[in-house]
């Protein structure tokens, strides 16, 4: 039973190859041996430096980095006071993005600090998402693996590899915590997660309002929940991006396996749209996390105290 | 009988993501419909509605992603 299923799978894969990659088909006929290719969950290695594997996703993200550097250099050296078409397009884009970021953070100072990082993430993820859609899937190497010959393409979007998205997610969550420490102080940031200060307040205020005896353990527990929430943030950020991009690749592949012409087109358009939206959401959530980290939980109370002090002074 | 037990993990995966996607699906639908309603009532606010809508969608989607993680981790 299971062997039959495996055979069917291999046949399906071959169908996919035949219809998606014409170049590959030629290789197939010349080699007169079956070359299997499937969309694997993990990125495949295309080269080795010592023990270090260079996967196709890593290779693609290097290409993206080089591309971004080149574009950035072109813009940098051609910058003028009176912008021409090229420059004014990018200025327009930046301005729009800045306005959006202001809307999210609600504070120009935070935007000025976080925007470079968020926008870099946006550009990196966007180009990575789009490069996987380019019709470059036919370029690759044929490697002899465990199940016979296997085709490994050079290009696989970096974001279709969990390692890339996990790195991005880790970076953005850790950076947001560091940003929180810088903007509101390490002690307050620590109390957000392990709420020691609440117990101090409890001892101080317990005579005035005995209900604080109940609310303090709850606040402590909420702090621990937030600590778990940080890990959930990393997981959701990385898996959202990875899931969407990888599912897109699989979708395109299976659609072109059904009918090679015309049918994949609307899905291609959908994937272009999804690429933008996912890059946008990643950058947006980074901004949101930074904003939340920079906010002080006790700000309201302190604000009230300050205002009462001012009132007292006025009187 | 042996065949059934062999494919149990695959069935479990399918159930995990299938059932797990129902809630977020309904949630995102509701977010979208409410946002449309808001824009319909006040078309000038479409710019202001869009970003919070996306953020809310992202948080609702996160639940589906947890289901996806579980589906991937079943062996």
* Number of beta-strand segments of chain A: 5
Could you tell me the radius of gyration of chain B in angstroms? 18 Å
CATH superfamily of chain B: F1F0 ATP synthase subunit C
Instruction: Report the CATH architecture of chain B.
Output: Up-down Bundle
Average pLDDT over all residues of chain A: 80
- Give the tally of structural domains of chain A: 1
Count of extended strands of chain B:
0
**Series of secondary-structure elements of chain B, N-terminal to C-terminal:** HHHH
Structural class determined from secondary elements of chain B: mainly alpha
CA radius of gyration of chain A is 26 Å
Give the CA-CA distance, first to last residue of chain B: 19 Å
Which band does the percent of strand residues of chain A land in? 5-15%
Protein model, in words:
Chain A has helices at residues 2-20, 22-31, 56-77, 85-105, 108-131, 162-184, 186-193, 196-205, 212-258, 264-294, 299-314; strands spanning 35-36, 45-49, 52-55, 140-145, 148-153. Chain A is mainly alpha-helical and 315 residues long. Chain A has one domain (2-314). Chain A has a three-stranded mixed beta sheet with strand order 1-5-4. A two-stranded antiparallel sheet of chain A has the order 2-3. In chain A, a hairpin with a 2-residue loop joins strand 2 (45-49) and strand 3. Mean pLDDT of chain A is 80; it is low at 1-7 and 15-32. Chain B has 75 residues and is mainly alpha-helical. The longest helix of chain B has 28 residues, at 46-73. Chain B has a single domain (8-73), classed as F1FO ATP Synthase, CATH 1.20.20. The two termini of chain B are 19 Å apart. In chain B, helix 3 (22-41) runs antiparallel to helix 4.
